[in-house]
Write a structure and sequence with these properties.
Blueprint: H1 3-12, H2 17-23, H3 26-34, H4 38-46, H5 51-77, H6 79-89, H7 102-131, H8 138-147, H9 161-180, H10 184-213
Length: 214
């Protein structure tokens, strides 16, 4: 559709559903994702033009959540708890989030979140399609799980971090259900299975790293 015609159709309210999602501001799409809108996740699954926006959602949501953690960790846990964790884990001078450098904490959190997003999309898609018979591909799972992280933005308020995490997990189950095309029970099982595979990979990587650098 020519650009002029698309603009005219949007102004007149006659734009197609596909165009409306693609032309919506990121925050509006994040709102629909956080509202557990199944139709939106269906569109995010099939519309490859939303890929770049999906990446920005991951970056923004996790950056805001990291800022909230950096601000509130010391106040929530207390300095005594931080010291106990250090001693128990033998962390030495490793700093807690509220004590570390702001940019270091945010950048590290976002980088880890991006890696986690990619790995979880791969493992969940694998489990959902190979074990439970769903149909999806890696890019589709990436998009829907990116938007499922939209609720994390409220994590910038330190006390709302746990709420944001649970909300995002619920949104992830909805996203997986729509991407794989089956019921909520199988979506939940796929999410858990994908997380278990991811955990095993992390444990294996940590073990190999320990052997290499001991």
């Amino acid at each position: 559709m020519p650009a002029r015609r698309m603009i005219d159709s949007v102004i007149s309210g006659d734009a197609t559903e596909e165009a409306s999602y693609r032309e919506q501001p990121m925050f509006k799409n994040m709102y629909r994702a956080a509202a557990l809108d199944s139709d939106f996740y269906d569109r995010a699954e099939t519309d490859s033009s939303l890929g770049r926006q999906a990446l920005f959602v991951v970056l923004l949501a996790n950056a805001l959540a990291a800022i909230g953690a950096w601000i509130g960790f010391g106040e929530v846990a207390g300095s005594g708890t931080v010291e106990t964790i250090r001693d128990w884990a033998d962390l030495g001078t490793f700093t807690a989030p509220s004590e570390g450098g702001f940019f270091f904490v945010v950048a590290t959190s976002v980088a880890l979140a991006v890696v986690g997003w990619i790995v979880w999309a791969a493992t969940t898609g694998f489990v959902g399609s190979r074990v439970f018979g769903g149909t999806t591909d890696f890019s589709e799972m990436l998009r829907v799980l990116a938007y499922a992280q939209s609720p994390l933005v409220i994590g910038i308020v330190p006390w709302l971090g746990p709420v944001a995490g649970v909300w995002s997990l619920v949104a992830s189950v909805v996203a997986i259900r729509q991407a794989l095309g089956f019921n909520t029970g199988r979506a939940l099982a796929s999410a858990i299975g994908g997380w278990l595979v991811w955990s095993l990979l992390q444990t294996g990587a940590a073990g190999i790293g320990g052997l290499l650098f001991q």
